[in-house]
Amino acid sequence: MFDNNKNSKLKIKIIAVCLSLIAVGSFGYVGYKQYFEPKTKDSQYDDLREKRQNKKLSFQNDFVDEGNNEDAYHDKDDDSHEEVPESKKESSQNKDSSSSASADSGTSSVEQSYYTYEYTDRTFGWISIPGTSIDYPVLYLEGDNEYYLTHNYMEQYDSYGSIYLDGNQYIGAKNMTIYGHNINAYYESMFKPLVNYEDQAFFDEHPVVEFDYGGDSSEWEVIGCMIVDLNNDHKSFNKCDFLDDNDFLDYGNTLLDNCVIKKDGFELQADDNLLTLVTCSYHTSNCRTVVICRQI
Fold it and tell me: According to the UniProt entry, which residue ranges have a biased composition of type Basic and acidic residues (predicted)?
């Protein structure tokens, strides 16, 4: 009987140890996924950030369009994607090949535009919001809104994706729409901080977005934050071509009228340019937080 009690106590201890190990492993996994993984993925941009601070990155390229590309855009929201035509796929592949060939042949960093990285034709700018973790290169692939959902600036598969311009728009449009993931983790990476603009205090404390592209630096003031449930209202927030000034003003003011928070006393002008930043939010299963900015 004594042996039976001893064996029972030993089994209980073994079970307790196993449960403890499982608990530690579970907490460790959650900690990794919620903090260390996003932090590690975010650190891959540190080298680029340092080069940018030291003015060793340039974003001059031939993508910038002053508004002459009338056929570059068709009204779509971010969840409506066309299949990329084969001609565009081939063009994209040719760009990659020519870019790689340029790097292999010893092309200078000035000619490559984007330091020593091969993918100069897709990395066209940089976006940052002072006081937040948003500080990233901006990618662009014409006609494609899917690729950079799952690829980084090195063209490697990455579930965190990239920050990228709407592929159905063009650089220099009257309204440029930039997307980024909201990584649901403790560590704020990619476009997760955008959801904080739903709070008035954060909105007031982070009024400026810095966006460098086409060889120029620019600042944009945040004028509104809108929440869009794509399951129900599917409001357009990525229109970039307008018939005339009245069409632009009607569109911009409609956006502002639908904002949950907007800048007091702001009045949109016909010569304003807009920058629309979009990320997922979790109010519903298919919801977006949309931050609207005006070029200063």
Answer: 71-93
